[in-house]
Design brief:
Largest sheet: 4 strands, antiparallel
Structural class: alpha+beta
Amino acid sequence: LGTPPDESAWEVGIVDPLNTEEMITTAKIKEQGLSTSGNYENFVEFDGKRIGHLLNPVSGKTSHSILSGTTIAHSAIEADALSTGFYVLGIEGSKKIVRNLKECQSISIVQLGNNIDVVRL
């Protein structure tokens, strides 16, 4: 709540899902909630494949399009629900929703070949 003393906003680090000891980017929030969803910490290995705890409800399979999805919203409850939904929807599906929500931002970490990219909506 509020802001840190002598600061205009809280600066929150967003972890690199491929190297959780490092921050990949940051976000600034003030009077908002923030939540991150991803399959990089809660997963099982089966037949040499990583199966995460977040599943696409349409396919029943682990979502792979986003490595990590962070959402900033009006409240922590909204941010939590939206970060999971955006993670499963992927970038294109999330764009449509973010455009229609006030005070909502999405920060996705995606892998494009051998490169990692930060996509802000």
